[in-house]
Amino acid sequence: MKVSFISLGCAKNTVNAEQMMALCRDAGMELLSAPEGADVVVINTCGFIDSAKSEAIDNILAMAELKAEGQIGKILVTGCLSQRYKQEILSELPEVDGILGTGSYSEIVPALQEVMGGGTPCRFGSIHAPVEELDRVLTTPPYVAYLRIAEGCDNHCAYCVIPSLRGKYRSRKMEDVLAEAKKLADDGVKELIIIAQDITRYGIDLYGSKKLSALLRELCKMDFHWIRLHYLYPDEIDDELIDTIAEEPKILKYLDIPIQHCNDAVLKAMNRRNTKEELLELFYTLRGRIDGLVLRTSLIAGLPFEDEDAFDELCSFLREVRIERAGVFPYSPEEGTAAAKMLNRVDTAEAERRAELIVDVQSDIMDDFNESRMGEITEVLCEGWDGQSMSYVGRSWAESPDIDGRIYFTAEREVAAGEFVPVRITGAMDGELTGELWEEEI
Questions:
Q1: How distant, in Å, are the alpha carbons of 259, 272, 273, 364 from that of 263?
Q2: How confident is residue 429, by pLDDT bands cut at 50, 70 and 90?
Q3: How far is CA 129 from CA 106, 150, 402, in A?
Q4: Residue closest to 255 by CA, chosen among 284, 290, 288, 220
Q5: Measuring CA to CA, which residue among 417, 423, 412 is closest to residue 380?
Q6: Which of the chain's termini has less CB crowding within 10 Å, N or C?
Q7: Could you count the other beta carbons within 10 Å of the beta carbon of residue 202?
Q8: Residue 431's pLDDT is what?
Q9: First to last CA, the chain
Q10: How far apart are CA 232 and CA 290, in angstroms?
């Protein structure tokens, strides 16, 4: 059987797709890099917000066209969209031949066999079951990989559907995480990106206390060059974790801490467990104890209870704290969430307008940050040659893959993808940095 995978959405989805690919490989199936010629195309979807749902449906319809043309055989849909909209997919997308929920990734092989036998698999295992330990076929470049340490979420933010799609928070056993990490290190991975919906709670459900710091100390003993952290929930960042991040040179001084807002009334309505004062104290503490820290966050404009004063407060907060990186989203009510029932909110057009204004604020902050780096010599992980700019391209510690900008640099010698090199920053180009290989040591 020839199978092709399309994975959409977050890095956690990427890991699930990689696990399904490994199961197919071990069952003797052939994995195709492109859908054309596949007996089955598996579309691993995201269903978190409207744009993600639209992307998933667009991909399903694109594969339906290939199916009608005879270029592919069957279509199997997995992931969050199928978990959230099981009946709608079955009734409104007749081109889909089967679906799997987020609790049934490990059932991919029997589901594929069923669909090829003419059946319509519809498998929805428990989303609260312990995390299954599965092998992976890495789809990232060989020098970078994601390490998922937990599944699900217990935060229950009022605007978010993730707990209903991914289940309660379940940590993986530390010995399992470390065993997978060792394999990744042995396979040549140099940048390890620690992921979960909330990595700061790691271990509480299994061990009765937070174990992220202990896990990170063990990971730092392995042969990784960089260890990057995504995502840290602000109310669970404690002194032990701050000390670990500050003291371990392999842990990048880049922290992704989603706050969504800063106004106390908005935060309370959204079931966030921080106040503005606590967020300010946290960011000033982090800046004071971790040298050269770069912060990233997520922000939602137009949330319920965000009046003009609350929005202005958010803009002022950002100008004060000067978070270097931010993903900004206009609020859209998601069915099944508490926030969707709240009437005290602005319309979609106003939420989009406010999001654009926040992007403008953040663009100024990012421009100032880029300007502050001029002349800096920084370590860059080369990702290869870019034919359009006729230069090499890569990232420093301050740029996370696929979400931040990159650094374009020239070199008098050949630089291999996956090589760490010193680069002197010389300019900026549409928000991204340019530089040149620095032949002296950093």
A1: 10, 11, 12, 22
A2: confident
A3: 12, 12, 30
A4: 290
A5: 423
A6: C
A7: 26
A8: 84
A9: 51
A10: 15
Q: How many residues are there in the chain?
A: 442
Enumerate the β-bridge partners of residue 31: 3
Alpha-helical regions (H) of 39-148: 50-68, 80-84, 86-92, 108-116
pTM score of the predicted model: 0.95
Enumerate the H helices of 211-347 as residue ranges.
Answer: 212-219, 239-247, 264-269, 276-289, 308-321
The token pair that represents 329 in the structure block: 């989203």
Helices (H) and strands (E) in the chain, counts: 14, 19
Per-residue burial over 341-358, b if 16 or more Cβ lie within 10 Å, else e, is ebeebbeeebbbebbebb
Q: What angle do CA 23, 88, 37 make, to 5 degrees?
A: 40
What is the structure's pLDDT at 440? 61
Q: What is the dihedral of CA 366, 243, 279, 372, to 10 degrees?
A: -20
139 C-beta neighbours (distance < 10 Å), count: 15
- Secondary structure of residue 31 in the 3-state scheme: strand
Mean pLDDT to the nearest integer, 7-33: 96
For residue 204, the SS3 value is helix
**In this structure, what are the phi and psi dihedrals at residue 395, rounded to the nearest 5 degrees?**
-140, 150
Q: What is the pLDDT of residues 131-180, one digit of tens each?
A: 999 999 999 999 999 999 999 999 999 999 999 999 999 999 999 999 99
User: Which DSSP symbol is given to 131?
Assistant: P
Give the whole-angstrom CA distance, residue 78 versus residue 16: 10
pLDDT greater than 70 at residue 76 = yes
Cα 301–Cα 168–Cα 47 angle in degrees, nearest 5: 45
Q: How confident is the model over 114-128, as a mean pLDDT? A: 96
* CB neighbour list of residue 371: distance below 8 Å, 6 or more residues apart: 428
Residue 353 token pair: 């307008």
CB of 136 within 8 A of CB of 22? yes
CA distances from 386 to 191, 415, 422 (A): 21, 12, 18
Q: State pLDDT tens for residues 77-113.
A: 999 999 999 989 989 999 999 999 999 999 999 999 9
When the pLDDT of each residue in the chain is averaged and rounded to a whole number, the result is 96
Whole-number Å distance between alpha carbons of 185 and 328: 34
